[in-house]
Amino acid sequence: MKKSVKQVNFTRIISMLTGILLLAAISCSKEENFTEELSSTEVISSTELQFSDEAEMISEEVTTIAEDVYATDEISIISKADYKSDYLPDCVTITTVVTDTTREKTIDFGEGCELPNGNILSGIINLSYAKNMEAASKSVALNLENFTFNGVAVEGSADILRVRSNENGNPQGTTNASFEATWPNGDTASFVGTRNREWIEGFGSGFWGDNVFLITGKRTYVGREGNVFVKEVISPLRRELSCRFIVSGIIEITRNDNTASLDFGDGSCDPNGILTQPDGTEKEVFLRRFLK
User: Does the reported pTM lie above 0.85?
Assistant: First the structure.
């Protein structure tokens, strides 16, 4: 009987040691993978790039709406005409409060409102700017209230320096923005920095589909795993509102002193780009931009 007990205990000990060694191996494997990921010369993964591009789209769309509402105000007041843009659908409620010095705009998307490009927004964008619409330049304050973009909860604010006519004779907005986004699955990302948006086509036409912007600037993006990426435009990005994607232009993406580049293409409206890593390796990437 005693011999039998000893054999059972020995078996248990072997089983326990095997389990401990297995757990240790898994732990080491995870640590090695984690270290490898952080020390890799690969600047950004294709998946993180998709999240990053969606974050950019949120910021871009919010800024587009703000500039469209402001431009409608500006054109209507200066030209004294009943001008109206068709970019925002009837499900959006815009309220204007005029004080002695300011114009306050509340852009309310309610519980969910679909824009012409298919994006669904809810909540409120608040704008505030000086009452005098004759000024050549104007500072526009923007903040979000209970705002979502295709189900992504977004918090933050921005200051837009709006110039009626830049050196090329076009309207331009320089936006200093800070936003934080939370996806429905709990993933988070934040982005802060400056973007210049020159309105090169379609200003004042009243038709959203012919609006074209050239975008430059530099931003810092903090991804889902806490990695920090600096994204700088080195060849102006062309944004055509008739297309969900950036159609051309190049950005540099830097992380841990390594720099990659993303080329958005030759002007075609498609979700593809070419990502070039620091070692020169090129890869075609898919930028989903909330593709359903």
Answer: no
How many CA within 13 A on the CB side of residue 62? Answer: 38
Phi, psi of 7 (to 5 degrees): -65, -40
User: E-assigned strands of 30-111?
Assistant: 93-98, 102-108
Determine the distance from the C-alpha atom of residue 173 to the mean position of all C-alpha atoms in its chain, rounded to a whole number. 17
Give, in order, the Cα–Cα distances in Å from 86 to each of 205, 207, 279. 10, 6, 46
Longest dimension (CA), the chain: 104
pLDDT tens readout for residues 43-61: 998 888 988 988 999 999 9
**Structure token digits, residue 33:** 């993978």
CB neighbours (10 Å) of residue 156? Answer: 19
Phi, psi at 226, each rounded to 5°: 90, 0
Measured CA to CA in angstroms, residue 215 lies from 15, 66, 229 at distances of 62, 16, 19
- Helix then strand then coil, % of the chain, to nearest 5: 25, 45, 30
Cα torsion angle, 146, 75, 89, 58, sign: negative
On the question of pLDDT at 175 being above 60, the answer is yes
Q: Are residues 135 and 147 in contact, defined by beta-carbon separation less than 8 angstroms?
A: no
Q: How far apart are CA 97 and CA 89, in angstroms?
A: 21
User: Could you tell me how many residues make up the chain?
Assistant: 292
Closest CA to 54 of 247, 287, 292, 221: 287
